[in-house]
Design brief:
The structure is a single chain. This protein has helices at 2-21, 31-41, 49-72, 81-98, 101-115. The protein is an all-alpha fold. It has a domain at 31-115. Helix 2 packs across helix 3 (49-72) and helix 3 (49-72) runs antiparallel to helix 4 (81-98). It is elongated, with a radius of gyration of 22 Å.
Length: 130
């Protein structure tokens, strides 16, 4: 009887560990959460109130466009990079009109690169792939 109970407990813990290892619990942040995180990172730019409102709108539209692209994508297919780059370039064109030259430079050189997710095994190692 004791061995049977021990076996059941062992099986229970094994199945819990297996389910957690699947990593299926990941939830994409909402547009509002992503905009707030982005705006927090832009605090170094010292945006005035008008710039803040306009920038918030630009990022809200940007993240909604990204979500729409993902929703329209067929499962198992790779995203069309050219469409993503167009959306990103549109965002940057709008930001260029809102930010001062100094703010835009800081955005492109410091803040935007820090926001990109690190992707291991990517080809962005400066051509040092061996």
């Amino acid at each position: 009887m004791k061995s049977r109970i021990a076996f059941i407990i062992l099986a229970l813990f094994s199945s819990i560990g297996f389910v957690q290892a699947q990593g299926g619990g990941y939830q994409q942040r909402t547009v509002e959460e992503r905009v707030k995180m982005t705006m927090d990172k832009l605090s170094d730019l010292k945006l005035n109130p008008d710039q803040t409102v306009k920038t918030d709108t630009v990022f809200t539209n940007f993240y909604r466009s990204i979500d729409k692209m993902r929703a329209e994508m067929q499962p198992g297919t790779k995203p069309d990079r050219s469409v993503f780059e167009k959306v990103r370039n549109d965002r940057d064109d709008q930001l260029k009109k809102i930010f001062t030259d100094e703010q835009y430079k800081k955005w492109k050189d410091e803040i935007e690169p820090a926001m990109r997710p690190n992707r291991s095994g990517g080809g962005s190692s400066g051509g040092n792939n061996q």
